[in-house]
Amino acid sequence: MGARKHNTAEARKEAQKTQYFAKLNNVPTSPRKMRLVADMIRGMEVNRALGALHFSTKEASRALEKLLKSAIANWETKTGKKADQETLYVTCITVDGGMMLKRLLTAPQGRGYRVRKRSNHVTIFVDTKNTNAEK
Fold first, then answer.
1. Is 70 contained in some domain?
2. Which residues span the domain enclosing 68?
3. Residue 84 lies in a domain
4. What is the DSSP secondary-structure string of 49-109?
5. Which of 21, 49, 54, 125 sits in a 20 to 30 Å window from 12, CA-based?
6. How far apart are alpha carbons 12 and 124 in whole angstroms?
7. What does the alpha-carbon distance between residue 19 and residue 7 come to, in Å, rounded to a whole number?
8. pLDDT (tens digit per residue) in 5-24
9. Is the residue at 97 inside a domain?
10. Quick one: CA dihedral 58, 67, 122, 91, positive or negative?
């Protein structure tokens, strides 16, 4: 690895030590459906977001609820504080397209239609409000 790449990789590692996040790869729902649920909780307080995800009827909300709990646990282990004592917020949530399974669906007259089974990658960042104001 070159010196420039090494320096940027080290800077990225240092920046991630102060960020509290969780990432979930290859969730078997389309990115469009996951973004609907992600937009619902973006910028929310964590306890309200967990309640909204728990009572949502969307299938994608189950995976997102589990991921949010993981992000909260990551925040607790990195800071050494309990999430009950602080007010945590969902600072950033991104949904990116993942790998796509390409399948064939039989069609009339000897043809075949392509079916794309999409997946996505979700990343959630959580932090306290006063830390966001300092940055």
1. yes
2. 20-134
3. yes
4. HHHHHHT---THHHHHHHHHHHHHHHHHHHH-S-TTTS-EEEEEEEEEEEEEEEEEEE-GG
5. 49
6. 17
7. 19
8. 999 999 999 988 889 999 99
9. yes
10. positive
Look at the chain and report how many structural domains it folds into.
1
CA end-to-end distance (rounded Å), the chain? 31
Confidence band, pLDDT 50/70/90 cuts, at residue 134: low
Sequence-distant (6+) residues with CB within 8 A of 63 are: 24, 27, 29, 122
Query: What's at 107, amino acid-wise?
Result: A
Q: Are 50 and 65 in contact (CB under 8 A)?
A: yes
Q: What is the CATH number of the domain that holds 124?
A: 3.90.470.10
User: Against a cut of 0.90, is the pTM above it?
Assistant: no
Phi (first) and psi of residue 77, to 5 degrees: -75, -35
Per-residue pLDDT tens digits for 80-131: 998 888 899 999 999 999 999 999 999 999 999 999 999 999 999 999 987 5
